[in-house]
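Fold it.
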Amino acid sequence: VQLQASGGGLVQAGGSLRLSCAASGITLDYYAIGWFRQAPGKEREGVLCVSSRGSVYYADAVKGRFTASKDSAKDTVYLQMNSLKPEDTAVYYCAAEPQFLADRSKCSIYDSNYPSDYWGKGTQVTVSS
């Protein structure tokens, strides 16, 4: 299983970025994808998740600003980040959660739900004020 997050960069406050999480070795028809972030000196936190059936659940901190979509043909999930704030600065990670036996319309933004082998390397997002 490989997950590759990309699309990070430097953006001014109020700007937008789109991150991609490309999965290989799995099909997202049976895996949820979670996006997480970790800022310097802070614990990792959930941003949002996309269930294998495409339902999206958001952390309160990003509701109304971030959205997600899935391209099943490419096994890729996109994280669209709008109205970015300096406090969104962090390394962003994506992870996969198997949903073979789970309710595929739901997903979790808690990182403990995601097996350690199903995490990709992060991509840095820096928002300047």
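Residues 27 and 91 are 25 Å apart (CA to CA).
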